[in-house]
Design goal:
The chain is an alpha/beta fold and 147 residues long. Helices cover 33% and strands 24% of the residues. Helix 4 links the parallel strand 4 and strand 5. The termini are far apart.
Length: 147
């Protein structure tokens, strides 16, 4: 097939954003807010135990609808291979860190998976509204861990 006719059949895919971080730092709740759902309420023990992907649509220029695929990854230590798989298929990662807890072991492990996958990432400090939140301490903790 000539190169020009092949290019006609290429359909761009939505970007894939993987959400990663330590257990109970609010990854799934953040996605619930974006999706306008309540998946967290259905999770066994309130803990994500699988990779899941969700497509979100948003209006763009000239009435065109753009889509973004979000992947939720488990934060429990037992699921490190799932987190690595999520990072390997993503275009960008969001590393979620709780302002109550700061950097934890799975935060570091998630960052290692992001770096291994060689994708850009954004750090999202979550739970800033909680009574024990300390944003400055969390930022310092991120800096101490070279994040």
């Amino acid at each position: 097939m000539p190169k020009s006719s092949t290019a006609q059949h290429i359909v761009p895919r939505p970007p894939i954003v993987v959400i990663m971080g330590h257990i109970d730092h609010g990854k799934s709740s953040l996605l619930d807010y974006i999706r306008k759902t309540n998946i967290v309420a259905k999770e066994a023990g309130g803990i994500t135990q699988h990779l899941s992907a969700y497509e979100v649509s948003r209006p763009a220029k000239k009435g065109i609808v753009e889509r973004i695929t979000f992947m939720d990854t488990p934060g429990h230590q037992a699921f490190s291979k799932m987190r690595a798989r999520g990072a390997n298929v993503a275009d960008i990662a969001v590393l979620v860190v709780s302002a109550e807890d700061g950097v934890k072991e799975q935060t570091k492990e998630a960052l290692a998976a992001i770096k291994q996958a060689d994708i850009p990432y954004i750090v999202a400090i979550n739970k800033i509204d909680k009574p024990n939140a300390n944003i400055e301490r969390t930022k310092q903790n991120l800096a101490e861990n070279e994040i």
